Amino acid sequence: MSEQPVSKRGRPGYDQRAILEIAVDAFNEFGYDATSMGVLASRLALSKSAIYHHFASKEELLELALDEALDALEGVLLEPESQTGRAIDRLAHVLRGAVKVLAANLPFVTLLLRVRGNTVVERAAVERRRAFDRAVSALVVEARDEGSLRSDIDPRIVTRLLFGMVNSIVEWYRPEGAEDPTHLADDVLAVALDGLRMLPAT
Amino acid sequence: MSEQPVSKRGRPGYDQRAILEIAVDAFNEFGYDATSMGVLASRLALSKSAIYHHFASKEELLELALDEALDALEGVLLEPESQTGRAIDRLAHVLRGAVKVLAANLPFVTLLLRVRGNTVVERAAVERRRAFDRAVSALVVEARDEGSLRSDIDPRIVTRLLFGMVNSIVEWYRPEGAEDPTHLADDVLAVALDGLRMLPAT
């Protein structure tokens, strides 16, 4: 989680960060369109003007939340282990990192995955998410070309199935549960890269 | 697709089946709660009473659509290949069958996957879907116990990751696209059971 400057304006008890987190929970629960600033204000027991003290608009809340999720995902691509070495190892590192980002930023990534591109802010987020997917897809191609991934599946299909598996984690993963993120990332890699079958297929 | 009796009542041009399919598309596009019978009527260019000629309520439309998706999925479990033989082969057959059902009934399964259990009809559908998931989870346990699946991953996590991958297909699969359902099912099995890596992990 990135550190956010804590504003001391507004009613005591809620800083900017807390308002953002409660807004993201409300967006995930009711949908962004259905969550008005009035709904948010009543959830926070604040006046609307107290929220506007911190944020110019509902869309600014959305933009900050989506940026945080995207910054975290893109950060994985910038890590040294994603940049050097064999493509298969870089791909494994990126998948592992994506699972950890998802587990550590669950509400923010959930919001990102539900965005459909209805507004300028949403379209920009969808475009950044697609660029991330393309970077992973390029790694799949590279890993296939270096001979470390099987070549009989279309890399676009592989990428979609991998993200389908990773992204579905937001539907059931609970940070307070028994499965820690590192273990979960191991499981995803075990299924996706090594497969579940004990013996090599004949 | 199951055959539905075609009612000849109502305005010419729409039988019961056509109204159901258009309703499902509308539910998927706008959400079930947001789609009123008035919205449906204007999409169909019918009066509301013409729809009520065929269906008692909006909920009946939902129930028929969810039943159709669930009947198709549960039908896979009843096929002989899901009932006899090694657990790994039965699991492979069920996964392959689930992908084909999804591809053949895309709008109906999409609706099923989005249901959250807000009404009696929705809760019944969620319960049937969970029972299907439990049947697959039991197959994963059986396949592990017979020694054909790796035993280092919790079968519940395996089942969730498998369904995460399979269910995500509704997000991008288009029946008119280049990827036919049989090929898509092969790809899912290749990723999930055999893994993407060329060489066995050390």
Automatic annotation (TrEMBL), chains A, B:
It comes from the Bacteria. SUPFAM superfamilies: Homeodomain-like, Tetracyclin repressor-like, C-terminal domain. Coiled coil: none annotated. Keywords: DNA-binding, Transcription, Transcription regulation. This is TetR/AcrR family transcriptional regulator. PANTHER family: HTH-TYPE TRANSCRIPTIONAL REGULATOR BETI (PTHR30055:SF234), HTH-TYPE TRANSCRIPTIONAL REGULATOR RUTR (PTHR30055). Residues 13-73 form the HTH tetR-type domain. Pfam families: TetR_C_24, TetR_N. The keyword Chloroplast does not apply. GO terms for molecular function: DNA-binding transcription factor activity; transcription cis-regulatory region binding. The keyword DNA-binding applies. Residues 36-55 bind DNA. It comes from Cryobacterium tagatosivorans.
